[in-house]
Amino acid sequence: MASQTQITWYGQSAFKITTPGGQVLLIDPWITNPKNPNAKDDLAELKKVDLIFVTHGHGDHVGDAVEIAKRTRAKLVASFDLGDALVKFLGYPAELAEMDTIGHFGGELGLLNGDAKVLFVRAHHGSGVTIDDKSGPRYGGSPGGFVISIRNGPVIYHTGDTDLFGDMALIPEFDKIDIMMVCIGDHFTMGPKRAADAVKLVNPGQVIPMHYGTFPVLTGTPEEFGRELKKRDAKAELRVMKIGEKIALPPS
Predict the structure, then answer these.
(1) What does the pLDDT look like over 112-159, one tens digit per residue?
(2) Where along the chain do its domains lie?
(3) In this structure, what is the dihedral angle of CA atoms 207, 168, 62, 74, given to the nearest 10 degrees?
(4) Which segments of the chain are extended strands (E)?
(5) pLDDT recorded at residue 16
(6) Which residue(s) pair with 6 in the sheet?
(7) pLDDT of 2 over the 70 cut
């Protein structure tokens, strides 16, 4: 049994969280993204996964979720409409996307016999689910983010893809955020300046930038993000992860 919470970044918005109790959580698991040099091995090594969290229906966030779920029997954590779309259009096993792990904004679910809980929070983006290159996107509900509380571990806010919005300031009113995983790439989400404002609103202990550099249009960089955080006198510690890097966090 692990004594620490471990976080691994696979690139883009894909993270693995291993709880102190040994449970494995994936968020937006596009393991095979083009910036991950060990994608094939990383995917094969995911033999035990308990939960898969998906923030919205875009392919770079759904990623390898269906393949992983079929192999590991991981349950889906997503909003009701997105879960329905992933089952009907992409083949996520229906028996792994039931009401014990499917919720909606403002709802909080206890997971894994109390090893974790999740609060569904909003994001400003899109969520169309694409089946193939010929047909248009199917309805995937509204995009969102997650506040994931780990027993004997941190409270993690994964923003999903989003722009800055004022109600982010309400998130720490309910849970002090230890780690904020924040999109910074620009073009499709907020860039470094607006992401730094988001961090200022949430005031986490640490911030991990994500969703940058995967494609040329995602021009935001951790360096620029760090400069913008300093301009705002943000108190959060900037923690820039390398793809494939694993960090361990002490018990809370």
Answers:
(1) 999 999 999 999 999 999 998 888 899 999 999 999 999 999 999 999
(2) 5-242
(3) 80
(4) 5-11, 14-18, 24-27, 51-53, 75-79, 102-103, 108-111, 116-122, 144-150, 155-158, 179-183, 206-210, 237-238, 246-249
(5) 98
(6) 18, 248
(7) no
- Span 5-242 CATH architecture: 4-Layer Sandwich (3.60)
The per-residue pLDDT for 132 is: 86
For 154, the 3-state DSSP assignment is coil
Tens of pLDDT along 165-192?
Answer: 999 999 999 999 999 999 999 999 999 9
Residues 6+ apart with CB under 8 A from 197: 164, 232
β-strands 144-150, 155-158 pairing: antiparallel
User: Does residue 1 surpass a pLDDT of 70?
Assistant: no
User: Looking only at Cα atoms, what is the longest distance across the chain?
Assistant: 49
Q: Is residue 252 over pLDDT 70?
A: no
How many other CB atoms are found less than 10 A from the CB of residue 184? 30
Q: Could you give phi then psi for residue 25, rounded to 5 degrees?
A: -115, 135
> Is the separation of the CB atoms in 140 and 129 below 8 Å?
yes
Whether 65 and 88 have beta carbons less than 8 Å apart is answered as: no
The count of other CB atoms within 10 Å of the CB of residue 132 is: 5
